[in-house]
Amino acid sequence: MFMDSLVRELFTEICQIPLIDPHSHINPHRPASRTLDDILGYHYYTELAHSAGMDQKPLAADVEPRQRVRTILAHMDHFDNTAQYAWFLDIARTFLGFSGERVTAADADTLWDAAERLMAQPDWEDKVLHLSNIEKIFLTNDFDDPLEGFDTTRYVPCLRTDDLVFRLDKPEVRQRLAKATGIEVDDAANLRRAIGKLFEYFTRHGAKACAISLPPDFTPLPPFSLPPDRGGIKKEEAFWMLAEYCRDFRLPFDLMIGVNRRVYRNGVYQGQDLFDQRTSLLQYAELFNAFPEVTFCISVLSSGQNQELVSHSWIFPNVVASGHWWYSNIPAYIETDLRARLQAVPKTKQIGYYSDMYKLEFGLPKFNMYRRILARVLADDFVRPGILGETRAVELARCLLRDNVKRIFQV
Amino acid sequence: MFMDSLVRELFTEICQIPLIDPHSHINPHRPASRTLDDILGYHYYTELAHSAGMDQKPLAADVEPRQRVRTILAHMDHFDNTAQYAWFLDIARTFLGFSGERVTAADADTLWDAAERLMAQPDWEDKVLHLSNIEKIFLTNDFDDPLEGFDTTRYVPCLRTDDLVFRLDKPEVRQRLAKATGIEVDDAANLRRAIGKLFEYFTRHGAKACAISLPPDFTPLPPFSLPPDRGGIKKEEAFWMLAEYCRDFRLPFDLMIGVNRRVYRNGVYQGQDLFDQRTSLLQYAELFNAFPEVTFCISVLSSGQNQELVSHSWIFPNVVASGHWWYSNIPAYIETDLRARLQAVPKTKQIGYYSDMYKLEFGLPKFNMYRRILARVLADDFVRPGILGETRAVELARCLLRDNVKRIFQV
Amino acid sequence: MFMDSLVRELFTEICQIPLIDPHSHINPHRPASRTLDDILGYHYYTELAHSAGMDQKPLAADVEPRQRVRTILAHMDHFDNTAQYAWFLDIARTFLGFSGERVTAADADTLWDAAERLMAQPDWEDKVLHLSNIEKIFLTNDFDDPLEGFDTTRYVPCLRTDDLVFRLDKPEVRQRLAKATGIEVDDAANLRRAIGKLFEYFTRHGAKACAISLPPDFTPLPPFSLPPDRGGIKKEEAFWMLAEYCRDFRLPFDLMIGVNRRVYRNGVYQGQDLFDQRTSLLQYAELFNAFPEVTFCISVLSSGQNQELVSHSWIFPNVVASGHWWYSNIPAYIETDLRARLQAVPKTKQIGYYSDMYKLEFGLPKFNMYRRILARVLADDFVRPGILGETRAVELARCLLRDNVKRIFQV
């Protein structure tokens, strides 16, 4: 995105705001990359390379990582138009000393060696965080994660609950749950006790949010309104319990709405999921009405649903618009969605952005992409028309990138 | 929105066009505000303040209005990023002599006093209309509105029919209908006679349109195609009669499509309604086919449906694209929707904008918001590429803001 | 669209790329217009004139063509704001020597005479193609088209299959099929043999694609998964066979998704079709999974579905995003949709644009519309932010406008 001098000034100021990243998939025991394979193993690169013609053999566990990286880079000229390629270029330049115009297959070994050397530094993690100006990062923890052995003030635990709602019929999930809670779950009453134990454990270990991703056709309903059934625990029942515990434990509930899993069944790992635009936040009306005390931080997968998110955040006091997720996390959609949110949602009810990253090195390029767009929208829609001065525009950015996260999640 | 010199020139010219506002909720017996409470009591402010954390106590009838205004203003710094805040700032500057950069809680008493003094002037209504360059304003009249005691050439009656279709099962609605028409409605034949009386009364009293708002799942169908039923008057039946009377009385029919009522059940007054993006104008195909003589002026609640509106107005001679409604009435959506309409719908089939206002003071900031966007779109999409000269661009604006309204509604 | 110097330079360079137009309705025996009636008889003009108030009498076969043209032009000032009007102006200027600012009814006879004189030139077809820089054009051939008497390297055959899936219950379609293949089709086995013959014939005669348009509620499913039925050949069964033959004959399958036929039943010829935004590419998941060897070139009718198209092209190796179709073929939607595709879909998996034209003269204004937008998006999103140099930006354009078409369709 082109930046004139006002946009550049705003961008520079916004970059000074220390970030709290409210959603990631960082492994706190190994947060930074150790090789270039950690970077290019991100599903965005494997799926784009596969989509552009790479078969899956290079992704097998027994392939030499350096060779895998060569193969992925060899396909990159098929997708060097994408935002994801631009993230990689940003990483190569910022963290790996790359100074070329484009990354191509010819750079594979140089980049591999640079990465190996640099990432081996004992303070690499700190360096990356410092360069990225990130202060805290929220995690995505399985319900049976022990949450031990890392600094939970830097890496903030978050109880991820997809398994408890959508995979509770799987024996291995019940076994993990039994092991974590000491409770053999076979009915709703048991499940309630087990979930209670999880919430206790997680909040005692610094968890600041509960989170779940939901398919487009899911409609949360209170248990009493569900049709009678042959038995078993219904998804809606489990979900409703989670909302009740969020209320009781005063945890915000992150709802990531709209993903269909395993649509492309032979896709690469984590590159199989898509969505169905035929979904509505109206499906959540009962939930939002029933839990006025719970803050629901909502992400939607399709930009088409952004107006519903804007309108629901504008009307429901307990609904917050959160980030730009996955398939909507490209500049064209971020810009459109952000403009509408800034024009219609109270500024205190917007979580600007989260990285969704698996490795720390992605924080910088992803937040940079967002901050560039934010700077331009603030310039065009607020500063130039005389609605806000530059200082106030940067305050608005701080609200989105830091203050709201601190207040909403109490960190 | 930033205006370069071409945009500013176009905006200035467009502001010279005397407006006919084809949809409002003005009370013609009390069109202008009398206090600041009338301004800040607009549901946009009460709902945004509530969404941002204000409880509903200040909104109770027994709260001193000046105190209510203070409380709402005290919450405004939570939503001073919104388009609605910008309207208020525009009102404060244009009508209340405010000269600050931002309105805050500290301005409550000064603004209150200024409003009290200024709005007490006997010619306040005329002043507001004059400053706003508004010539005529359409009303939204209940079916039992006597339509007397006001100038119907300035305040044009419009028969609002939601009650007749969606609340006819309520005894109080039937009683009001009996009182207004002398007919006790208990079947379709009675209803037809009663509605006939209403159309006669309304058109005799200067009504120029029939209007209704519709939920996203409503599908108008001719009575013969409806499934048989236990009895009672079906919504579709009542709706179809309205279309028949619009045809017989040559009234355009305003359809405001897409609102779900009472979604947030504990919301503030008029701040409870939302929408479901899963709706289609295809639901109206039978209606548009069956009534080629009726002009249907269509508003859609979600910007996502704008392309359907564009395409239907492009294909159906009796479909007109009308205004930018409610949740789509923010610059980001107006701009997107307007550009598509200007590129694909015959210019004679577009009603540019309506205020939807309850108090006259909102005409100016709302139309200004629209006119600024219109000026920019005309500059970027028509004048700069050499498609229209400036004079013709302003004529196109006049078509949207005045000529089409005059011709379509015969005012 | 306004073009600054960078955009203008890019546009000029992009215009040098010889085009291969991968979808049109050209009649190869009469590709160019012979009169102005051929131009203004395009459904865009008849339907816009009708939508803006023209009745259908001037469209009758027995009306003198010159008179019909006068009547359509007399209505043009009702839609001279549209993109379609801009195409006509471009044609009048480029091909008919028109030098005015606007075309009006007063120009009817002059333009008629100019067209008559110019189009009678024996090399008119070649001149138009040369001026338009178009090298090859794909056709839309009925299954019983003999495909003879024209140069199939210039006009590339494409098997259009709507009849075989959606109108196979019509006796006249079965008769045409029997005549073309020698097979009386009365069950699925027969149909399979008949379609096999068609694929053989078409590929032997230079066909490079199979194509079909599909209604928004269609969901392709494998035959074994269909519910049992009273008999007859199911649409899904016929469609699945086509995909199987595309696989066996290595033909890409163009899916044009989302059109409802005959929505406005009294509309002009080809001006009756609309769409329903409630549709999803998820409906095609089984198909995309079942035929990894078939390249599906997908067009969607509504811009709202573009994000699904972007995401499916990003994930599925066999899905390609293709062109900007019909109701989405206006600058406002092309720009939005194109930006998202360029940011998220591998560049090798995008077919930039096709003309969809019936007469050669429309190639130039339609591709120009696209190229102007492409030049601006490349400037704003790639060149100015330093992601691509100008030369590489033009290479990206060549990929979209030429290289991908050549590779995907093997021409």
Biggest interface: A-B, 41 and 43 residues
Major sheet details of chain A? 6 strands, parallel
Element order, helices and strands of chain A? Answer: HEHHHHHHEEEHHHEHEEEHEHEHEHH
- Roughly how many Å is the radius of gyration of chain A? 22 Å
Low-confidence stretches of chain A: none
Number of strands of chain A: 11
Mind telling me the CATH superfamily name of the largest domain in chain A?
A: Metal-dependent hydrolases
Quickly give the CATH architecture of the largest domain in chain A: Alpha-Beta Barrel
Oligomeric state: homotrimer
Task: Give helix % range of chain A.
Answer: 40-55%
Number of domains of chain A: 2
Strand order of the largest sheet of chain A: 4-5-6-9-10-11
Q: Gap between N and C termini of chain A, in Å?
A: 33 Å
- Share in β-strands of chain A: 5-15%
Using the alpha-carbon principal axes, give the shape of chain A: globular
CATH topology of the largest domain in chain A: TIM Barrel
Average predicted local confidence, pLDDT of chain A: 97
Q: Give the C-level CATH assignment of the largest domain in chain A.
A: Alpha Beta
Helix/strand structural class of chain A: alpha/beta
Tally of DSSP helical segments of chain A: 16
